[in-house]
Design goal:
The complex is a heterodimer of chains A (about 140) and B (about 150).
Chain A: E1 6-12, E2 19-22, E3 26-31, E4 37-41, E5 54-59, E6 66-71, E7 74-80, E8 84-86, H1 89-95, E9 97-101, E10 109-112, H2 114-120, E11 129-132
Parallel strand pairs in A: 2-10, 4-6
Antiparallel strand pairs in A: 1-2, 1-7, 3-5, 4-11, 5-6, 8-9, 9-10
Chain B: E1 3-10, E2 13-18, E3 22-27, E4 32-33, E5 43-47, E6 50-54, H1 57-60, E7 73-79, E8 82-88, E9 90-91, E10 95-97, E11 103-104, E12 113-119, E13 122-127, H2 129-139
Parallel strand pairs in B: 2-13
Antiparallel strand pairs in B: 1-2, 1-9, 1-10, 3-7, 4-5, 5-6, 7-8, 11-12, 12-13
Classes of the chains: A mainly beta (about 140), B mainly beta (about 150).
């Protein structure tokens, strides 16, 4: 029997507010202070702690790379393909989340809907783009 | 025609739902909150390897006092567009109610109530779960499978 495929995710923040991004789509991770440019502000996700560290993730889909500004600890998560479940549209649509990672049937973390972000070029998405300046 | 119904308890109120919708009655299930979700659809549970929306039925019926996640039972139901998980306080065995005993609801005080049974002064309302979940789906902007 072939081995089950494992999928890797970058997880931002801690449960139950954590959010996951497919690691294959993340091309770079920068400390917030090292980034200059426009980033989509996802800091409301991941953690409620205002003092948590900030990062910018550069992600690429079919279109232009998107910079995501996030807040909270970063971690890597491996999950079996069968543990990554598509979210029903009634839940995923408004949240801009595409999947749920549920090891052993326990709902753990939601996966950001990168395809939708990519397709829409963030049009209509709930997060705003802001310019981020490096600290001086 | 006789109705096969499952009595369910939400807070101190008992309601009927049609037994044909019911797939399983579970204990309190772990669930994950969904950011920016409607209050009636606060989260997601996992049932038989699929992500299933958690529907706060008590809130939809206007009887919620506690939070959905604090209820000790989870009812898994199937409807035309998918599957949903409903936190409830208790359920009894499925009953067969003679059709003539179920009367049209008086006054429409219970949302989605279609018929009611007067049981020694206690009124138990039959909820149209199909309509309730379809409306919720439409309101959430979903175009496809609801679960």
């Amino acid at each position: 029997m072939p081995a089950e495929r494992m999928l890797q995710f970058v997880v931002v923040g801690a449960a139950p507010a954590a959010v996951a991004i497919p690691a294959a789509a993340v091309s770079n991770v920068l400390a917030e202070r090292d980034f200059t440019g426009t980033a989509l502000d996802l800091r409301e996700l991941g953690t409620q702690r205002a003092d948590a560290g900030g990062h910018v993730l550069l992600v690429r889909g079919a279109g232009a790379p998107i910079a995501l500004r996030v807040r909270g600890e970063l971690d890597l998560l491996s999950a079996r393909e069968t543990e990554v479940l598509p979210l029903p549209p009634s839940l995923g649509h408004a949240a801009w989340m595409s999947h749920l990672i549920a090891p052993r049937g326990i709902p753990l973390v939601l996966v950001l809907d990168l395809a939708r972000l990519d397709e829409s070029h963030t049009l209509g998405c709930p997060w705003e783009s802001h310019s981020v300046e490096p600290e001086t | 025609m006789d109705a096969h119904v499952l009595p369910i308890q939400l807070e101190s109120n008992w309601f009927f739902i049609e037994a044909r919708h019911v797939r399983e009655v579970l204990g309190a299930e772990p669930w994950l909150p969904i950011p920016r979700a409607r209050a009636e659809l606060p989260g997601v549970v996992v049932w038989r390897g699929r992500a299933v929306p958690l529907v706060d039925l008590a809130r939809l019926l206007g009887v919620a006092k506690g939070a959905a996640q604090s209820r000790p039972r989870t009812l898994i139901v199937r409807h035309e567009r998918g599957v949903a998980a409903l936190p409830i306080d208790a359920a009894r065995e499925v009953r067969r109610i003679p059709g003539e005993a179920l009367k049209p609801v008086q006054g429409g005080l219970v949302p989605y109530g279609t018929r009611e049974l007067d049981e020694q002064g206690e009124i138990l309302t039959l909820i149209d779960l199909e309509a309730l979940l379809s409306d919720l789906d439409r309101a959430s902007g979903a175009n496809g499978d609801a679960g």
